[in-house]
Amino acid sequence: MDLDGEPVGSCCVIESDCSLKPQYSPWVASVYVKPEKRLQGVASGILQEAFRIAKKFRIQGLYIDCWAITSPLYKKNGWKILERDVGQEDSLVMTEAQAANNRLQSMRTSRTPEPQR
Questions:
Q1: Residues 79, 85, 91, 92: what is their CA dihedral angle, to the nearest 10 degrees?
Q2: Is 47 helix (H, G, I), strand (E, B) or coil?
Q3: Which residues, 6+ apart, have CB-to-CB distance to 97 below 8 Å?
Q4: Is-contact 78 96, C-beta < 8 A?
Q5: CB atoms within 10 A of CB 8
Q6: Cα separation of 116 and 22, whole Å?
Q7: What is the 3-state secondary structure (H, E, C) of 39-74?
C-alpha cells in the first residue's frame, strides 16, 4: 500500500503459513506497516485490499496466524478467532468473519436430517 506514492505497508496471500494447520488455506501473511505510519488505518486498508483480491479470484475465505496481542486489529476488520494457542502460547488462528459464517451455514445446510420415529 502506498500513500502519496510512498510504499508504507504490505502483506502476502499465500497457500500455507502454519505447518500445524495444513487444512486451512489460503493465508494472509507478513502484514507490515512502517512504524511511523502505524495507527493511521494503513493495516486496515491492506487487509481490505487482500479481501478484495481474494473475492476477485473467488477465494472462499482467508486465515491468519497472529499473536493474541494483535488480534484487536483483525477483529476490527471482520476476523474471528478460530483456534487459540496454535504452536505457541498466545498465538491465534483467525479467519475472515464472512467466510466463517459461510462455512457454518454450509455445514448446517449439508447435514442429513435425522429420521423421524
A1: -10
A2: helix
A3: 78, 79, 80
A4: yes
A5: 19
A6: 38
A7: CCCHHHHHHHHHHHHHHHCCCCCCEEEEEHHHHHHH
Helix (H), strand (E) counts: the chain: 3, 7
Per-residue pLDDT of the chain (117 residues; tens, 9 = 90+): 666 788 999 999 999 988 889 999 999 999 999 999 999 999 999 999 998 888 898 888 899 999 999 999 999 999 999 999 888 788 999 998 665 555 555 555 555 554 454
Task: Please give the backbone phi and psi of residue 26, each rounded to the nearest 5 degrees, phi first.
Answer: -90, 170
Torsion from C-alpha of 82, 84, 90, 92, nearest 10 degrees: -20
Task: Output the nine-digit C-alpha cell for 63.
Answer: 486465515
**Tell me, what amino acid is at 80?**
K
Give the predicted TM-score (pTM) of the model. 0.76
Spatial separation of the C-alpha atoms in residues 9 and 32, rounded to whole Å: 5
Domains and CATH numbers, the chain: 2-110 (3.40.630.30)
For residues 68 and 91, the answer to whether their CB atoms sit within 8 Å is: yes
